[in-house]
Design brief:
single chain; Jelly Rolls; 5-stranded mixed β-sheet
Amino acid sequence: MDNNYNARLITIIVGLFIVNVINAQVPVREEPRHHPVLVNKYIRLLDVWIKPGDTTQFHIHATPSLFVILSNTNTVSQIKGEGWQSGVSNPGTTWYRSFKPDVLVHRVANIDTIPFHVNDIEILSSYHPEKKTAALPFPLLFENEKAFAYQLKRGDITNNTISQRGPIIVELISGDGIRLHQSNRKIATNLQAGKYLYIEPGTSFNFMVSGTGEVNLVLFELK
């Protein structure tokens, strides 16, 4: 074989390797823009940030998950083997998907000028699946076999103490002057828009609110 042939062969092999790397699919928890910021026996919370003009790798969703949008961003997504689909994210949009048996392999691109921010909460274990639990006295977005989702405005927030519940993820979409008081742990925390807080199972807590501005607060409670 001549040197030119060998050079061409090496170029082809390297090119195929690069294509395979680009098209590789990884579990969502290993996708570089999906940051595991909280992992315990119940949940894996992935804090997802996609910069303007950036695209995720193809990644696999295979675990029952709760989602909440935290930014108002134009994005496009592509299920592997299909075409691109456009959409606009709306802060506070929530949903649940079991991904069983419909495992999802896709990628997402940010075509806007601001970052795309979403939280993907993978449910690793139920809390008390055998126990019939009534919803909290908050406006209910949805309920399924895994979780409750609530959405509170300022007028829905009271100082009433909640206790003896399952794991809760608090997501402040917008607003300020909201304080979470965990009485049995003697902790008080000011909620920040775009940030999450985790409430341990069995914690006694209440919300305190000041000011008059609009509030959009989402709670996820595992069953």
